[in-house]
Amino acid sequence: MNVRKIDTFSGHRDSVYTIISDHTPSGFFSAGGDGFIIHWDLSKPDMGKLVAQAGVSAYTLAHDEQRGQLWIGQNFEGIQLLDLKSKQIINTLQITQSAIFDIQLFNDKALIALGDGVIVVMDIPSFSVQKHIKVASKSVRSIAINVKTGEFAVGDSDHNIHIFELETFRLKQTIRSHTNSVFSICYTPDGTKLITTGRDAHLKVWDVANAYQLLHNIPAHLYSINHIAFSPDATLFATCSMDKSIKIWDVASFKLVKVIDRARHAGHATSVNKLLWTPYKTELVSCSDDRQISIWEIEK
């Protein structure tokens, strides 16, 4: 495998905490500690457009493609709803005074992970809170939806994974999964496995059909693993870490394929916070506390 850094996007004035697709092959949004929400296009390098200023830092975004709206999780300020056509904030709701770590949209529902251990369920059409689910004494850090099984999984800072029914929100199972906070949680594209990572720097793989039995426990990085992203063809996935590195893994074997770091590839200088593996030339996008967004060309 060959890896080459082909570009660096500069535009943020503080740590970049999140990047999400705009549901086109080449476009994505970023947000961070400066409260800037920037739209980028890989086909037009470093021509980012400021679409909103959240006012405070934002750890998470969610794109509602159907309605042309962007959900912004403002830390300690609640949710802002941005209309992407007019670039105007059309609604706000103070749902918490804690940090907002994740927002996942499904059908007409928004599932929101909060720093006070609560999952808030919001109705998207009415932009109103429908339910509070208390799951942890500390932060809820990540939510993943499995449409194939009708479930969603939640990782928290009490070291647990919780499995819920998607339609009823009934808790099905709690797994004491890691030895520290669970930072990132996602299902494989085929829905058969759940992958979790966290502060303990381990990568764990769980068998969905077999009551989430543990399949792999891999000491994958030196420090906290912040995020997971799959390649467009679902044959590879990448992890990023507070140890400043990105690692590429084989989905079939869960074997390490490649390490991307500062020494060998002019990688990030500080913690790598989020990843986005795009269909645009299969380029991998990463963001970091170093205020930079890096674009990687991955050739098998």
How would you describe this protein?
The chain is an all-beta fold and about 300 residues long. The protein contains one helix and 28 strands. It has one helix at about 260-265; strands at about 1-10, 15-20, 25-30, 35-40, 50-55, 60-65, 70-75, 80-85, 90-95, 100-105, 110-115, 120-125, 130-135, 140-145, 150-155, 160-165, 170-175, 180-185, 195-200, 200-205, 215-220, 225-230, 235-240, 245-250, 255-260, 270-275, 285-290, 290-300. It is globular and about 50 Å long. The model has no long low-confidence stretch (mean pLDDT about 95).
What is the radius of gyration? 18 Å
Distance between the termini: 4 Å
The coarse overall form would be globular
Structural class: mainly beta
Q: Count of helices?
A: 1
What helical percentage do the residues reach?
under 10%
Give the tally of β-strands.
Answer: 28
Strand order in the largest sheet: 1-28-27-26
Biggest sheet statistics: 4 strands, antiparallel
* Percent in strands: over 45%
List keywords for this structure.
single chain; 300 residues; mainly beta; four-stranded antiparallel β-sheet; 1 helix; 28 strands; globular
Short description:
With 300 residues, this protein is mostly beta strands. It contains 1 helix and 28 strands.
